[in-house]
Amino acid sequence: MVYKTHILPLAIREHSFNLECLENLDASVDEMFAELERRKSQEMLEELCPYFGVVWPAAQALSEWMSENLSTHLAGKSFLELGCGLALPSLLAARLGAAVTATDLHPDVPIFFERNIRRNLAGGNATPVFAYLDWRQLPEQAAPWDWIVASDVLYERSYAGTLLSFLERHLSRGGQALVADPQRPFCEQFEKQIQESSLRFEKHIWPVKTLGQPCVIYRLDRKDPS
Ligand SMILES: C[S@@+](CC[C@H](N)C(=O)[O-])C[C@H]1O[C@@H](n2cnc3c(N)ncnc32)[C@H](O)[C@@H]1O
């Protein structure tokens, strides 16, 4: 699909970014449904909605938190982002020296990813890679990751459990995860489910200028890292 886009300047503390984003998310969603109608497509699929195409407040909160707390912790570490959308945390992690893999299930994400890498990363940064990954279908084998992050991915009831299973399976020993959420209704359920899992969490509250309420950032690791 052809989208109308614009370049959004963003400052994450001392890191400046210019991200190509959708000009108007609602208009792009309407256009997508109109296009599916024209093609008489049976696939009126929610998952083709271009929700990837804006920087959601939780991505901004997560990036600000990472910049404040992890700026000297990511160099040389493997870093996986789930449901990355425009992948601001991945771009920041690459600037901080991590070996980054950004993932999403939407077919148009890699085009934006490539363009935003060209716009925002200098030659000295290791180039992040993109991989299609649907977090509902857990890959049996995948590298254990030092860091796994996700922002604004708890918007369906089943996602909390799926995400936790993914983290339990794919975090390395000593690995850590960050999950940022704008306090959507299933956030509380996520917190309860962490307590029943093999993971433990610290909870951080992070203010976001563009949102009426702060975001929550969960930092998770294994209860028993051995
Ligand atoms: C609300 S957006 C958040 C995007 C980005 N993380 C941010 O905070 O700006 C949700 C993202 O999750 C992706 N997504 C939805 N369901 C998914 C699934 N089952 N597997 C992987 N990604 C998924 C969407 O394509 C979209 O990019």
Could you explain how this protein is built, in words?
The chain has 226 residues and is an alpha/beta fold. The protein has a single domain (52-222), classed as Rossmann fold (3-Layer(aba) Sandwich). It contains six helices and nine strands, in the order ββααβαβαββαβαββ. A hairpin with a 2-residue loop joins β1 (5-12) and β2. The longest helix is centred in the N-terminal third of the chain and has 14 residues, at 25-38. S-adenosylmethionine binds at residues 47, 51-52, 55-56, 58-59, 83-86, 104-106, 133-136, 151-153. S-adenosylmethionine is lined by residues 47, 51-52, 55-56, 58-59, 83-86, 104-106, 133-136, 151-153.
Reconstruct the topology from this structure.
Layout: E1 5-12, E2 15-22, H1 25-38, H2 57-69, E3 78-82, H3 88-95, E4 99-104, H4 109-120, E5 129-132, E6 145-151, H5 159-170, E7 171-181, H6 187-195, E8 199-206, E9 215-222
Parallel strand pairs: 3-4, 3-6, 4-5, 6-7
Antiparallel strand pairs: 1-2, 7-9, 8-9
Helix pairs in contact: 2-3
The structure holds S-adenosylmethionine.
